[in-house]
Amino acid sequence: TELDHIRNFSIVAHIDHGKSTLADRLIQSTNTVSEREMKEQLLDAMDIERERGITIKANTVRIEYIAKDGEKYILNLIDTPGHVDFAYEVSRSMRAVEGSLLVVDSTQGVEAQTLANVYQAIDADHEIVPVLNKIDLPASEPDRVREQIEDVIGIDASEAMLVSAKSGIGIEETLEAIIARLPAPQGDRDAPLKAMLVDSWYDPYLGVVVLVRIMDGVLKKGDQIKMMQTGAKYGVDRIGVFRPAMQNVDELGPGEIGFLTAQIKQVRDTKVGDTITTEKKGCEKPLPGFKPSIPVVFCGLFPVDSAEFEDLRDAIEKLALNDASFSYEMETSAALGFGFRCGFLGLLHLEVIRDRIEREYDIELITTAPSVIYHVFMKDGEKIDLHNPADMPDLTHVDHVEEPRIKATIMVPDEYLGDVLKLCQDRRGIQEDLTYVGGRAMAVYDLPLNEVVFDFYDRLKSVTKGYASFDYQLIGYRQDNLVKMQILVNDEPVDALSMMVHRDRAEMRGRAMCEKLKDLIPRHMFKIPIQAAIGGKVIARETLAALRKDVTAKCYGGDATRKRKLLDKQKAGKKKMRQFGKVDIPQEAFISALKMD
Ligand code: GTP
CA torsion, points 51, 198, 100, 17, in degrees to nearest 10? Predict the structure, then answer.
């Protein structure tokens, strides 16, 4: 295909503004798939994506469109995830295309992720076509939102498309705008092959599939290729495009986006952002690389039933095959036995992986408190990257501790601003900026990541009734007065509940945790002290009184089925508990105890 008949673009939007619906509509209206094949949310393949309505992996589709000028155009759409955890995937796919549709829900307006994503598009030098979606709804305010886009983002929105992705309004016009307003890709067909490795994943039938964007030259089946960063060499088995099902082609030329397969063993062997060229007569200079994605949130995953450890290993290895940003290593805990310490891009990423293990592999898990990486500077000059609070060295040897900080952008309707500011203050935030645009406030805070990883997002949603949007980026490490707080149940430390806290907040957190645990741990035949301690010094204490009565006693001996049910429930509850010394701690205690409210 001639370059001037190709358009490559992505769609950027805040979550729920209709990105996937619009993508589906573009695909459908160009008859890329038949009506029968057309399932709603076609691009969101994974079950969890479908259930939660979020897009996790970037997806790609090639659309053929006969324009009003009678010419046939190839449109390559790379769908990008909208959630903060996956911002890195957004930035990488942006480099593979020349333009973006900026989808804004015209009943809502610009949100924090709209901003974060559109700035990435601007960074990548994209031409941007604003799309005001959901104009079918009575609450739609295209004029206000158009103005807001111009004020907040600073791009011209006078020619924004008026669209209803749901009912199909403005789709044709949007396709025409893509052709008229987005630039065609550039590239030299006769130059040595230079292709960008945009993404890769594991396919059970084909092995590792690599998504590529050809910059120069031509990629053909049978080519001997070389990854310039890793130096690895492969023979290309198969080349194809997504329509959106995989379809083989003979070659991919400049400006085209497609996939290749070769004898690549693991997703890890493919470095996203790497440049692919031919082994012989290859190009000399690689493309500017991407920064590698690094896990920022860590937690331990342990099987509730220790007999399932091998199954868990198997599940984790399989998931990691398909997700290079997820890291893991074996971990043993005195209390929880064998498990894995896992690293994630963020909390949603953690949740998705945990859910998949529980659902797809049917393994019940205990998840320990999420933690960030602390830099621990020892008195002898050594520096330790602390991934697990349980490994924190004795304070007498520690000189100081640094923690990661983030710059958080929160957008919220005015009436909830007070609660948001209080939440940020409570989480040791430093306000950097506060501005108002069209009935909404935008607050920028410097916050410790530690205070955000656990339940910040949940809290933010609840104090703003879901109206706030949130986005963040890591800004670096800073020293603070951080200590390890241990929880002792029946005088035994429970590693999985150890956490790093700011010294000034330790008492408060310790008290809150002991009180919570007192409610969460069932009573035993003996009395159980629950304590929080810093370096051997107890800072908070609760006592769970001894009591053990037949739970069915309160049924007054009457209804037999009710009794049965209660006993079953008790049995099921038992299964989910772990023994710590002589004490049973239910699984939900590990998460609930850490929530602050
Ligand atoms: P992620 O893929 O999770 O980032 O979200 P998204 O931006 O793709 O949103 P999605 O396409 O899943 O749409 C969110 C919700 O808005 C869905 O319930 C859609 O049915 C609805 N929706 C999308 N477009 C329109 C529209 O034009 N009009 C109306 N009324 N509803 C729409």
Answer: 10
For 402, residues 6+ apart whose C-beta sits below 8 A from its C-beta are 374, 375, 377, 477, 478, 479, 480
- Nearest CA-CA partner of 369 in 309, 462, 453: 453
* Other Cβ atoms within 10 Å of 15 Cβ, number: 17
Residue among 12, 14, 16, 44 to mutate when testing ligand 1 (max atoms within 8 A of CB) = 16
Identify the burial level of 158 via C-beta atoms within 10 angstroms of its C-beta, where 0-12 means exposed, 13-18 middle and 19 or more buried: exposed
**Band of the pLDDT at 549, cuts 50, 70, 90?**
low
Of 122-131, 497-506, 573-582, least confident by mean pLDDT is 573-582
Supply the Cα-derived Rg of the chain in whole angstroms: 27
β-strand pairing of 99-105 with 6-13: parallel
Q: Is 327 annotated as a binding residue?
A: no
Residue nearest to atom 28 of ligand 1 (CA): 134
Q: What is the pLDDT of residue 95?
A: 87
H/E element, 114: helix 112-123
Q: Which residues contact 116 (CB under 8 A, 6 or more apart)?
A: 84, 87, 409, 471, 473
Q: What pLDDT score was predicted for residue 119?
A: 82
Helix or strand run (H / E) with residue 532:
strand 528-534
Distances (CA, A) of 43 to 320, 436, 517, 535: 22, 36, 43, 51
Q: Which residues line ligand 1 (CB under 6 A)?
A: 13, 15-21, 53-55, 82, 133-134, 136-137, 164-166
Strand segments, DSSP code E, in 266-423 are: 275-278, 297-303, 327-333, 337-344, 365-367, 374-378, 383-386, 398-413
pLDDT digits (tens, 9 = 90+) for 173-200: 999 999 999 999 999 999 999 999 988 8
Distance 48 CA to ligand 1 centre (A): 16
Whole-number Cα distances in Å, 160 to 130, 206, 589: 5, 41, 50
pLDDT for res 547: 73
Nearest CA to ligand 1 atom 23: 18
pLDDT tens digits along 411-437: 888 889 999 999 999 999 999 999 887
Can you tell me which residue has the tokens 């090639």? 62
| Spatial distance between the Cα atoms of 280 and 271, rounded to a whole number of angstroms | 21
Model-level ipTM above the cut of 0.95: yes
Give how far Cα 501 sits from Cα of 71, 230, 334, 506, 542, Å: 63, 40, 22, 6, 20
128 or 553, greater pLDDT: 128
Q: Which atom of ligand 1 is nearest to the CA of 169?
A: 27
Give the DSSP per-residue string, 441-487.
EEEEEEEEHHHHHTTHHHHHHHHTTT--EEEEEEEEEEEE-EEEEEE
16 annotated ligand-binding residue: yes
Atom 22 in ligand 1: residue holding the nearest Cα: 18
Q: How far is the CA of 18 from the centre of ligand 1 (A)?
A: 3
| Cβ–Cβ under 8 Å, residues 346 and 296 | yes
